[in-house]
Design brief:
Layout (H helix, E strand, L loop, with lengths): L1 H21 L7 H9 L5 H17 L3 H22 L6 H17 L6 H21 L7 H25 L5 H23 L1
Length: about 200
């Protein structure tokens, strides 16, 4: 029950932090919001990485349960903002694909990394995915509404990964590791696709 409460607080904090900017002006941009909500679901790279962050966080437990998704989401917003200012980051697509591979391996191997390294790695991946979101924002969408949308969907995907991770702890831990293998294999395929 305590883990659910932490996840709910994290999601509420993120939504509150962007909601005031999204709706501070008249004519709320429903197009931007809907586009942002849908965007993380339209690519396997985003979908798998975001679920994997939640799954890995649940696998690790403790403070990492909220630190990993929180750092990913914070840097997701920073990355999207950076893309709007400087829309040219080399090796972005291979970096996004590599994030899926690495997250899958972390889950498959059930690796225990130091908290600082775990957060830094997750934050880097969040930045890369956010940068990609920023580049893919439609020109007619309001950036704040679009950001609110993709942050809400990301939080939902993180919570889905956390739910899977919590439900597979202990007796079903190998199921989570098997999911990690599938995620890592998908990331490998994405890297091959991007570089060829």
């Amino acid at each position: 029950m305590k883990q659910k409460s932490i996840a709910q607080r994290l999601m509420a904090a993120v939504l509150l932090s962007v909601s005031s900017t999204a709706f501070a002006h008249p004519g709320h941009d429903a197009f931007g919001l809907v586009t942002g909500l849908i965007h993380p679901l339209t690519g396997a790279d985003h979908l798998l990485a975001m679920m994997a962050v939640g799954l890995w966080a649940a696998q690790r437990g403790g403070r990492k349960l909220w630190l990993l998704p929180g750092s990913f989401m914070l840097m997701l917003a920073v990355g999207a903002s950076a893309a709007l200012i400087h829309p040219s980051l080399p090796l972005l697509e291979p970096g996004v694909a590599a994030s899926v591979l690495v997250m899958g391996l972390l889950i498959a191997l059930s690796l225990q990394l130091p908290t600082v390294l775990s957060v830094a790695l997750t934050a880097l991946f969040g930045f890369l995915h956010g940068y990609a979101h920023g580049l893919e924002m439609p020109g007619t969408a309001a950036a704040s509404a679009y950001a609110l949308g993709f942050l809400a969907t990301t939080a939902t995907l993180h919570l889905g990964g956390i739910a899977i991770g919590v439900s597979t702890r202990g007796r079903y831990a190998r199921l989570a590791q098997a999911l990690g293998i599938v995620i890592a294999a998908s990331g490998s395929w994405m890297i091959v696709t991007v570089v060829t």
